[in-house]
TrEMBL record:
GO annotations of cellular component type: cytosol
Enzyme class, spelled out: lyase
Species annotation: Streptomyces mesophilus
One Pfam short name: Amidohydro_2
InterPro entries: ACMSD, Amidohydro-rel, Metal_Hydrolase
Swiss-Prot/TrEMBL catalytic activity: 6-methylsalicylate + H(+) = 3-methylphenol + CO2
Record-level GO BP terms: secondary metabolic process
E.C. code: 4.1.1.52
Protein name: 6-methylsalicylate decarboxylase
Record keywords, A-Z: Hydrolase, Lyase, Metal-binding, Zinc
Domain of life per record: Bacteria
GO molecular function terms noted in the UniProt entry: 6-methylsalicylate decarboxylase activity; hydrolase activity; metal ion binding
Domain spans labelled Amidohydrolase-related: 6-312
Length: 322
């Protein structure tokens, strides 16, 4: 089936939604509420918008709702196992239409390593979903090094996703954090991965950065310049050019133009953000992408040789038709 591959699509189960609500995340990140989701509704949206397949992940707030005390860790391990099993079942039911980006119960490193191995070796996940930080600990935290090393060893595709940053109570000014805070937290995380050397230490991880690179196009050269003054000097723009970017959110009319200054079009991937972006908005945003000249030389489809096919070979047209 020819069409786009959606690398930024979410799913929820009734159990996961109940767990979120019980933990005080019934209005996640300040949004009005958790959306409903079903495989049928997702497939309907995909069919209506020319989306051949979607890689499903759990969105913010993820699966670990507390600190890293033992009781919270155990609950997070169980919830990660639940959502990953549910995602794998969706893939088994619709192998041509769905992929899975598995969740990890970080900041519980031992639990994350166990679930990472299970996700690959038993569930055959297509990718791994990481949040920008876990209770204020960003991905460059030395404690997370074993997880990143394992992802590197497996040449993992990582779908990065923002969450409410530390101190959002002071910075969000009462507005939902996905409006502004998500974009700055993505930018903070990625710049830190570069300046800390974490990105260079794990060169085989294939990172997908959400929301057309967030604020990275605007701040990349500033980060590079200031880093030379602080002794962290790094070629931030060059490092950013080695990453992949999904186009979820509002990349047109402005953001995509800035992203093209950092990354070549063969680094672009489609993202719907369904169901946190409602079906009607998915359609209007997809139509805008199809109309923009900024994507005239980009390939968002699943055909062999496309960026999506390189990252997700199981979901290429060749595999689907064989």
């Amino acid at each position: 089936m020819t069409g786009w591959l959606d690398v930024h699509a979410h799913y929820l189960t009734d159990h996961y939604a109940a767990a979120c609500t019980a933990a005080g995340h019934g209005q996640p990140d300040g949004m009005p509420g958790l959306p409903s989701w079903s495989a049928k509704s997702a497939l309907d949206v995909m069919d209506a918008n020319g989306i051949a397949a979607a890689v499903l992940s759990i969105s913010s707030p993820g699966v670990h709702f507390g600190d890293h005390q033992l009781i919270a860790d155990q609950a997070a391990r169980e919830l990660a196992e639940h959502v990953n099993d549910a995602g794998a079942a969706l893939v088994a039911d619709h192998p041509e239409r769905f992929g899975l980006s598995a969740s990890l119960p970080l900041p519980d490193v031992d639990g994350a390593l166990h679930e990472l191995a299970r996700a690959y070796d038993e569930l055959h996940t297509d990718a791994v979903a990481l949040k920008t930080h876990y209770h204020g600990r960003y991905l460059s935290d030395p404690a997370f090094a074993p997880v990143l090393a394992e992802l590197d060893a497996r040449e993992a595709v990582v779908t990065l996703h923002p969450t409410s940053p530390p101190g959002w109570e002071c910075t969000a000014l009462g507005r939902p954090r996905p409006m502004i805070e998500f974009l700055f937290d993505t930018t903070r995380c990625v710049v830190d991965l570069i300046l800390s050397g974490t990105l260079a230490c794990h060169p085989r991880i294939r990172w997908i950065i959400p929301h057309a690179g967030a604020v990275l196009p605007a701040l990349a050269h500033r980060a590079a310049f200031v880093s030379t003054l602080t002794g962290e000097g790094a070629d931030v723009p060059a490092a950013l050019g080695s990453l992949y970017y999904d186009l979820a959110g509002t990349p047109v009319p402005v953001a995509l133009k800035g992203l093209r200054e950092l990354a070549a079009p063969e680094r672009f991937l489609y993202g719907s953000d369904y169901p946190f972006t409602p079906a009607e908005a998915v359609t209007s945003l997809a139509d805008a992408l199809r109309r923009t000249h900024a994507l005239h030389d980009a390939r968002l489809d699943t055909a062999p040789g496309s960026p999506a096919a390189r990252l997700f070979p199981r979901l290429t047209d060749t595999q689907i038709s064989s």
